């Protein structure tokens, strides 16, 4: 590797640790999460003009992003507690279902009517359906599974940063007050913890779990995650004679990761979410390095419009369905955050709302949505491909 690639690799591996450290010690604003910081540093460097991304470096960054996603995906899935999810408050599950339904409907409609104007709208709809069910990591996973063009992946991420960031900023400022005038007030109910809620654990923290130092626990978790990914690649090779069929790879990782949650021995690994989140942050830094906003302005305006026509109807339809079902304000907001942004932001917004009671249910449905989002996005994409005759 040359010096540029070494710098890129060090940035992707070290910055997430610094961002997590600063966030844990409240050196950053509450809304400026490690995932936003990771995107921001990559975008800042990519758009500064001081670090031009040539073809060779672009391929290297794509490799780092893909590796981060493939390793982080099973570690995040290990945190899902499918059995416990059945004990969650009914309204949180219902509101989250409405969010996923709204996302599928909105993206499918836009994809159908724009099929003649934008290439591969069925792929875009699949990626966005997964994003609106489980958050940003699903975009890369589904895009990889559908062999999406790399520029699509980068431009979709850039558009989502603009649009999703604007809505998130509204959620931490004036929207909670506005929604309070529309939706009922939250009433405390008993709910069962369906995931390990200590998702904000700093993976640099020195501690011992069951007599083992933290580095040994993290190493064991990493080995388990790599094993699931390697097993998925191996099964794909046995079935197809190659490992390039990423649709099968992603579905296998998702299936094996969720299946592993039923194994009693998995509990001995401890909370795998922080390590999985770290690799997703590595992915975010790498994607940020590829997010050239000048390219978005010159080549991606159609994609930006596609995303705009998808996300805002998704939000509006979700609100409409929740209003019809008389779901309370806090559940509406957290279910939306769980679907659109993922677990990291659920913890932040629950703090903004002053409602820690819904933190565990919000985290649980978010992780569950992350798991099913890959299935959903791929299914929506191929259904639309058949419908529009692509």
What is the chain-wise order of helices and strands? HHHHHHHHHEEHHHHHHHH
Number of strands: 2
What percentage of the residues does DSSP assign to strands (E)?
Answer: under 5%
Strand arrangement within the widest β-sheet reads 1-2
Q: Provide mean pLDDT, rounded.
A: 81
Q: Compute the separation of the termini in Å.
A: 40 Å
Low-pLDDT parts are: 190-209
Can you tell me the overall shape? globular
Q: Major beta sheet, specifics?
A: 2 strands, antiparallel
Classify the helix fraction into a percent range. over 70%
Q: DSSP helix count?
A: 17
Briefly note the structural class of the backbone.
mainly alpha
Radius of gyration: 20 Å
Write the layout of secondary structure elements.
Elements: H1 3-24, H2 34-46, H3 55-77, H4 82-85, H5 90-113, H6 121-134, H7 137-145, H8 150-171, H9 175-180, E1 208-209, E2 212-213, H10 214-240, H11 246-260, H12 273-290, H13 293-299, H14 301-324, H15 329-340, H16 343-353, H17 359-388
Antiparallel strand pairs: 1-2
Architecture overview:
There is one protein chain. This protein has 390 residues and is mainly alpha-helical. 72% of the residues lie in helices and 1% in strands. It is built from 17 helices and two strands. It has helices at residues 3-24, 34-46, 55-77, 82-85, 90-113, 121-134, 137-145, 150-171, 175-180, 214-240, 246-260, 273-290, 293-299, 301-324, 329-340, 343-353, 359-388; strands at residues 208-209, 212-213. A two-stranded antiparallel sheet has the order 1-2. Helix 3 runs parallel beside helix 11 (246-260) and helix 6 (121-134) runs antiparallel to helix 7 (137-145). The longest helix is centred in the C-terminal third of the chain and has 30 residues, at 359-388. The protein starts with a helix and ends with a helix. The relative contact order is 0.22. Residues 190-209 have low confidence and may be disordered.
